[in-house]
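Hey, quick one: can you model this chain's 3D structure?
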Amino acid sequence: MKIVISETQFITILNENFKKLGSGNMGSVYMKNDKVYKLTEDEDEVVVSKGLMKSNREFKHLPKVYSVIKLGQNEYGEDRYGIIRKKYTPLINNQDLSDVIDLIRKYQKDIMYYIPNQKNNLPKEVIENKKLLNTIHGIIDEFSTLNLPEYKLLDFHLNNLGVDELGNIVLFDF
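Sure thing. Here's the predicted structure for all 174 residues.
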């Protein structure tokens, strides 16, 4: 028997009032207090989120994941999951990091291609910005500790970056 769960049912199950932050190809994102609740069919994101949760580490550049729950299947028979993680302030809203934001806008593709294999060179402007360079290498180093060799971080862009309460830039969607 297939279990089909809609976004509305997901919110009802959690029995809370949530604010919808947005949706994409693979899911929808909601917020309540200091947590983000994501409804997704993205198996890669589930594997990475489980790895983050199981690591029991406090990462500086990767999100804190509290829970990954299998909810059932969508109308196409794909497994549907709920991921609960810490909420971060969107990087785009942080005026103190406008130089980093401008560089990411300008060199987003270069950075995104650099992260999985470090074979291509980063642009000189990126290398000279210590905050951005340290973030990129921090993301690479932290992700490598998860020991998920078949998974790559290829979704580095402004909408997937946030800032924590200490000013660290966090890649919260992969």
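One thing worth noting: The CA atoms of residues 145 and 166 lie 22 Å apart.
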